[in-house]
Structure formats: structure tokens, C-alpha cells
Automatic annotation (TrEMBL), chains A, B:
The keyword Protease applies. Homodimer. GO terms for cellular component: lysosome. This is Lysosomal Pro-X carboxypeptidase. Its main location: other.
């Protein structure tokens, strides 16, 4: 058993080429898979097509909504487009920004743009505090707990509530506009919680791929890795079995001494050596991150993020793992390396000369924000057993996780707070929420998969969908199930709006 | 127009004999009628019959639930009684403590005790942070904004949510117990908001006399004083007219010079002189407080708080004001003084030799807590016009109120936050709430008076009820409408419990 950290693409879809985001300290501390976000990097945007135009503005908000000890304020960035908006009380489609630069969400949430015309709606994207340009304390925002301590989901939701109240009051024609909240991944959690906590401000929420149940004592820690394994298994049992056995193969090579260690370095084209247990753990963590993430972006069409991933990228990985290679550790490692290339260097998109499996935390990035959130209140248990999943054995140890988080950030983590404060296990306290989940996406293990008709809570399952595929813009290669999901979402949202307008 | 402050008995029912609670600074600052609580004084309890027995315990909670900059914890006091509790998942009747010592609420919320037997329920009373013995920073709790800043309704509700979650998990037989929240006045607001924000933790709320709409831009500032005047008018139009004209009479006497000023002092048996405009304002504020408060305790039976008020105490006041006395300022003032005695010194219960109309803020009392709350987020507009009401003209000036609050406490008041954060004008975002209101109680002006059957939100009007009469224990003198109200409340709560048990 070793320690690893996974890089999860929760919402932002963005993967940095060098996977710089791993927090070394956290990894060393036996922190298991967490929702590390990926740093938004300007270099990533070169290939993104800005299909949408929007205005950018800032809104002044208190740093602390729930107390009066801190009277500081900060500027929250938001984007908006009113091209199709009906100024006679038209609908506001509101994106609950999550852990990243809000522009990334604006350009990757095509569904909102697509429906804005038919709904005569304006679109508004609010940036989550401590991400992008919405830094409460500028370059000191991540300095210490005194500055970081206001980075919580509750404060972010209060930001949105106060902002929306003022925005509606000050925007001509918007005073009585219904607001529908949208969000994917952590943003989807925020959208659902927004409806739960501020039903008087938003009329309903589309919470896409929102693992609101991925918390202590609710969702088994195995869920994520088992689902990821199933998504791999679509391309054959050998693919899974090769990955499952690769961890031991790497250990064998490492244990065989200098030649085996050199082999590992060369096979994976690593910049650094594999000469210590930590080096080996870094390598495994790097691969674990790859396998754990690629299933999230198992989209049916080429996606232009970073490595120019092809349609169904997991297939590209598994194409290299179709035979049983496990008789020979070196052969298996070579094939695993080829599989990794299909992710890290598809069509030679990787511009570096070698891969880094580690990096120091950057001083002002999205990863720092999520690192803190994952250590304070967004603690999502993850584990692997190498039997029901293909990952190396990794136990979930809440106590040591919390202990290390406390040490790293100088805070008191609250592992039970999210389930206490928000929807809880029984989500029926809220109404008017769509929970959509793609079955290829490992996060659906912590999602709401059943409907509660009395509360107008509708679960939509997208069998061929990866991480919030439904929130992406229309694509000719969309499978029928995501088209149907979006149609259903449009129908439900239209009904919410009609209900609202009848009552107002 | 002069400045006055009223002493409101919001929930605690307790009035100190010397009315020590006025915050001189606030009064001077043109703060109009606010929800000043009354300090809980040990001297008040001498005559209270402790009809109920309970155990006392403490629970450790974070000072800040919504952030991580402050890692302090504190001890919240709570009281409980399990005499009638069904240990097989019986119901928990939970009182959301408001601005005062929780023991006062425990002994003055007889309804919960009365129904605990038939419901086989346990009763639990949680003390609101910064009141009673639940002081987060001990005797430094009221020192400054850095210490006081965590005194908010949101933090108190989070206290209750975290406490209940743990309490249920650690109390044998309680893991799946339904919890029903109760509260009167501000405590009723908390109960309603508790259901709105934590529906997964409480199954429903009885919010008695809860002015959840008494906020900026929602309820007209005139409401309270107009209703108080109507309650006086039950005992004749001369009663109202005498009070209405008394303010000018007092001014006339004051303006007439030394003899008139001496007359005022003697007539009201004041300890201090009436030689300055401030003295006169103090006197008027003292009387305004009396008239504004007595309608809240217009109970149908003698109540044993402080002055041993008789049944229907407003009648006792108005008995002195049945004739038109306004032709002579001195005669009118004499009668007003007699009327005031009926409140301040009913059956010679007042033990002092003279009355103080002012006092300095005490260093560690409930008034300090509520003074801060009324200045930070619980800003409730009040005004009077001396036409539709009997009070002296007093305008509501939000800007100067907020300015003075900011100056007094070194904070940034948030007059719109409560309506943004909680139910809002349209309370239909929540379900399972009973809003009960007595029509004699001026606070019903800011209450929810209509039902929303689809949300199972039921408004119960109690025509002969004063401030949360329904929460008080059974009394032989109860009017039929409060008996009916309680029966209806029992029926609704029983249904909530049945619904919960069917689903769990």
C-alpha cells in the first residue's frame, strides 16, 4: 500500500500538461483521492474556441456573510450576456461558479448558451471566491488560515444570493425575473445547495454530476474507483487486468534495483529518477491520476483540452492494453506507458521533453483553493482495494487525513459539516432540483440517482455520459441519451419558469 | 419629534424593575423602536414557579461554523427532560433558544412540557450563543466586534444543527427520532428559519409570534405602533386619545419651566430630574416602552413576571384613562402616571423608591447581545405618526440608524441580509411550518398571516392572544381561541411525526 493523490477534473475539465498540481505535502501525508482541481493556466486556452461573448463586471461583497468580526469586502467577478434576454422579466440562467476561473466554465457550459435563445434568457456566470480573479485578499489570499478561512461553500452561496438580489434590483426588467441555477461537479453541488438554502432566490437548479452524497458515512469510499474501473472495462477485461497488475509490476522493477529503476524512468519518459519509495509513489500517483481522470472526460467526441483527447479517450488508452501482458513486469510497464501516452501525449500534443510526476504547489493557483476546501469541509472519502477496482490498494483513514489537513492549514477540518449543513442523506428537504449523472463518470457514485416526484426532484441518468456531458454544448456526436437528458432538462426548467410566472 | 427607544419583551417576557436596559447611546442616536431584549435578572426569578425539572449539560461548538479563520470553540448550554420520552425513536421537542437565559424559556414554554407526555417526547432547550451561560468568550464576549461578531442568527442555527446531529447520534434510541422545532418571538423566527435551512434535521417548526417579515422594505414601519394602539383601543377611545395627547402635554409642562419640570418629576415618581431635553426624551422613552410592551403581555390571566401583572393588564392601564383629561396637561400627566403605575407598580410590587428612566448599559447582559443583533442584521424598522397610532411622532431613518450602529459597534450593519438569507417575502421555499400570531400582539404586523397549503405552511390566528400565548402552559383562563390554536398545532405536529415515521 502506498500513498497517492489523484487529480480530479471536477468541473473545470482542464488538465495541466505537467500535472503540476499535486500537493506534495498532501500526498506524502497519506491523503487519498480528493477533489484536487486543476489549475487554470493561460497556456491551456490557446486552443479553446471562444464561441461566446460576454461582458465582465465586478460586485462588492462582504468577505464574511455570517458574522461581523471581519468587515472586509472583496470584488467578485461575473460574466453576463443579454443577447437573447427578454427585458420584460425574462429568465436568468445563472451558473454557480466552482473551483476555477469562471471564464473556463462560461466557455465550457454550452448548454446554457444553447438554451438562452429559445428561453429568451440572459446568462450570468458568477466566479467562486478564491478562484480566477475573485481573490478576497489578492496575492495574500492563500497565505494562511486567517486569509483562506473564508473559502467555504456557504460563503460562496451567500455571495451568489446577495449578488443576485442586488443584480435583479438594479438591472432594468430583471426585478421579477426567475433565476435558474446551473452547475457542474462541485458547481452542481453548489447549484443544488443554492436551491436548498435560497429557494426564494432561485426557482430551481440543474445540478449536473454533483456528488452531494460523496461524504463521510454516506457513500462508500470504494465507489469512485469501482466505477472508474467499470468504465475501463468497456474496452475489455484485459485492459482492467493490466492496469490492476501494473502496480505490482512497477514495484517489482523498482525492487529489482538500479536497472529496473532506470527502466521505469525511461519507459515513462520521466524527467526525474525513480530511486526512492517517494519517487515510485509519485509515479504511481501520476498514473492513478490519469486513470481516475480520463473516465471523467470519456466524451463521445474529440475534446480540445490540453492533450487534444480523441473521442472516447479511454478506448485510446485501452487499445494499448488488449493482451495479457502481466507475465513480464517490463512488458507490462511498457504497455502501461503506451497507454499513458494515449492520455498524456495524444497526437503528440505534449510539448515538454519529459514528464514531471511531482511539482511543488504553486503560490497562487486554483489548486491551492481546492486543496484547502478538500481539507476543510469538502472531505470526500476515497479508497481502493485492487480487487473490485484496478487501482493499487489504498485505505481511507479519516483520522490521519484530518490530522494532516489540520497540520497543513492550521485549521480544524469539519468532515461531517457538509452533510449536517446541506441536504443531508435524505435530499427531500429541497424542491425543484435536477440531478443529472453520467454513468461513465465515477462521481456518480456520490450522486443522487433517484427521483422524488413530490419534491420535483428529478434524477436523470445518462448511460453514455461522462462528467456533466449534458452541460456541454450541442455536438453532432452526442449520444441519444444526452440529447434526451437535455430535452428533459429543458422541459422541467420550462415548467419551473411557467409555475413561477403564474404565481408572480 | 424626539428620539426614543422601546423595551421589547421579545420572547423572554422579563422586564427589569428599573428598566435598566436602555442603551443610552443608542437612544441618543435616534434609534427608533427596536427589539431590545430585557435583561434576565436573578431578582426576577424569585416568584417564578419552577414547574418543570430538567438536566443541564453543555456541548462544544465552533465559534464560527462558516469559515476556518477562527478555530475557537465554546460551550453551549442545553436543558433536557426525558420523563415521557419513548426510547424507541420517540419524538424530540426542541426549543430554539432566543435572546435570553434558556432557563427562562424552559419555564415559560409550558406548551412543550404539556404535550411531551401525550407525545411521549423528550424536551430539549438549547441556549442561544451570547446569552445566559453560553458565552463564547466569557466576560469578554461583549468586548468588541472581534468577540461579538459571531453573534448571528445563522451561527445560532448552525449551533442547533450540529448539536442536534450529534445529540441524536449519541443518545440511545434517538438516532432516528424526528425533531420538531419550537420557538417564540425571535425564537420563533429561528424555528421557522431552522426548518427552512435544515429541513433534513427538523421535520417541522412551530414559529409562534415570529415577525419574520418585520424587515426593511417589507412590513411598514407603522405596523407595530398601530397594532399596539388597537389593543389599547379595546378599552375605549379615551384611553388611546389620552395617551396620544400625553406627549404634547409633557412637552408643554417641560416648556413651562421649573415648576412644570418639577411636576413631571413628582408625578411620575422619578429618581432623576426632568431638566433637559434628554431628560424629557428619557421619560417619554420610558413610557413608550411601557405602552409598547404591555400589549405583548396582554394575557388573560395574572402573569407573575416582575410587576405581578394582572389578567388583561392593558385594562388596568386604561382604567385610569377613561375620561378625556387632555384639557389640562397636568391632569393628563397625573392620569398617565397612574396608568403607568398600573404597569410598573401593580399591587405595589415595585420595590424601589423611585423610577429610573435611564441607565447605562450593563457590562454582561442579554441587552448587550440583543443590542448588537438589532444593530447588525436584525434591523426592524419602527415608526409612529401620532395619528394612526397613539405614540409620539417618530420617523424611521434607516441611514442614520445604520450609521449609528456602525459607530457604536464598529461593524457594517446588513439591513437587507435577513430577507436575502432566510425565507424572504415569499415564504413558500420552506415547508412544514406553523406561524401562529396573536392579534393583540403588535409583532403580528411582521408575521406570516396566510397559509400556504401546498407547502404545509399554516397560519394560525389567535384573536385574543398576546405575544406567543399559545406557547405558554395550559391555564384555566385560556380563551377558547388559544385552546383551539394549540389543538390545531398538536394535530399538525402529530401529522408531521406520522409522515416522518412512515418514511423512516
Amino acid at each position: 500500500m502506498y500513498n497517492y493523490t489523484i487529480y480530479c477534473i471536477l468541473g473545470s475539465f482542464l488538465i495541466t500538461s505537467s500535472f503540476e498540481l499535486e500537493q506534495h505535502a498532501a500526498r506524502k501525508a497519506n491523503l487519498n483521492r480528493s477533489l484536487w482541481p486543476l489549475k487554470s493556466s493561460d497556456s491551456l486556452k490557446y486552443s479553446l474556441k471562444f464561441q461566446y461573448t460576454y461582458s465582465t463586471a465586478y460586485f462588492t461583497l462582504p468577505v464574511d456573510h455570517f458574522g461581523f468580526a471581519n468587515t472586509d469586502t472583496y470584488q467578485m467577478r461575473y460574466l453576463y450576456n443579454m443577447d437573447y434576454w427578454d427585458k420584460n422579466g425574462g429568465t436568468i440562467l445563472f451558473y454557480c461558479g466552482n473551483e476555477g476561473d469562471i471564464e473556463d466554465f462560461a466557455i465550457n457550459t454550452g448548454f446554457m448558451w444553447d438554451i438562452s435563445k429559445q428561453m429568451k434568457a440572459m446568462v450570468v456566470f458568477a466566479e467562486h471566491r478564491y478562484y480566477g480573479k475573485s481573490l478576497p485578499y489578492g496575492d495574500k489570499s492563500f497565505k494562511d488560515a486567517a486569509h483562506l478561512g473564508y473559502l467555504t461553500a456557504e460563503q460562496a452561496l451567500a455571495d451568489y444570493a446577495v449578488f443576485l438580489t442586488s443584480f435583479k434590483a438594479t438591472t432594468v426588467g430583471a426585478a421579477n425575473s426567475p433565476v435558474v441555477a446551473f452547475g457542474g461537479s462541485y458547481g452542481g453541488m453548489l447549484a443544488a445547495w443554492m436551491r436548498a438554502k435560497y429557494p426564494q432566490i432561485i426557482i430551481g437548479a440543474l445540478a449536473a454530476s454533483a456528488p452531494v452524497l460523496q461524504f463521510e458515512g454516506v457513500t462508500p469510499c470504494e465507489a469512485y474507483n469501482e466505477i472508474a474501473t467499470k468504465t475501463f472495462a468497456r474496452y475489455g477485461s484485459n485492459c482492467v487486468e493490466n492496469v490492476r497488475r501494473s502496480w505490482e509490476a512497477m514495484t517489482d522493477l523498482y525492487n529489482s534495483g538500479a536497472s529496473g529503476q532506470a527502466y521505469l524512468k525511461k519507459a515513462f519518459n520521466l524527467c526525474g529518477d525513480v530511486k526512492t519509495a517517494d519517487d515510485l509513489a509519485d509515479l504511481k500517483g501520476w498514473l492513478t491520476g490519469a486513470w481516475g481522470n480520463i473516465v471523467m472526460v470519456e466524451y463521445p467526441y474529440p475534446a480540445d483540452f490540453l492533450q487534444h483527447l480523441p473521442a472516447w479517450p479511454v478506448k485510446g488508452v485501452c487499445d494499448n492494453l488488449q493482451q495479457p501482458y502481466w507475465d513480464s513486469p517490463s512488458t507490462l510497464v511498457t504497455q502501461i506507458s503506451l497507454a499513458a501516452q494515449a492520455f498524456f501525449n495524444y497526437s503528440n500534443s505534449f510539448s515538454g521533453s519529459c514528464f514531471n510526476t511531482t511539482s511543488e504547489p504553486d503560490t497562487l493557483g486554483a489548486d491551492q483553493g481546492w486543496g484547502f476546501q478538500a481539507c476543510s469541509e469538502m472531505i470526500m472519502p476515497m479508497c481502493a482495494d485492487n480487487k473490485n477496482d484496478m487501482f493499487e490498494v489504498s485505505a481511507w483513514d479519516l483520522d490521519s487525513y484530518v490530522k494532516e489537513c489540520a497540520k497543513t492549514y492550521g485549521i480544524v477540518p469539519k468532515p461531517n459539516w457538509i452533510m449536517t449543513n446541506f441536504l443531508g442523506v435524505n435530499v427531500t428537504g429541497a424542491t425543484n432540483i435536477i440531478f443529472s449523472n453520467g454513468l461513465l463518470d465515477p462521481w456518480h457514485g456520490g450522486g443522487v440517482l433517484r427521483s422524488y416526484p413530490e419534491q420535483n426532484i428529478t434524477a436523470i441518468i445518462i448511460p453514455n455520459g461522462a462528467h456533466h456531458l449534458d452541460l456541454r454544448g450541442h455536438n453532432a456526436a452526442d449520444p441519444v441519451d444526452v440529447i434526451a437528458a437535455r430535452d428533459m432538462e429543458i422541459g422541467i426548467i420550462t415548467q419551473w419558469i411557467a409555475d413561477y410566472q403564474r404565481e408572480h
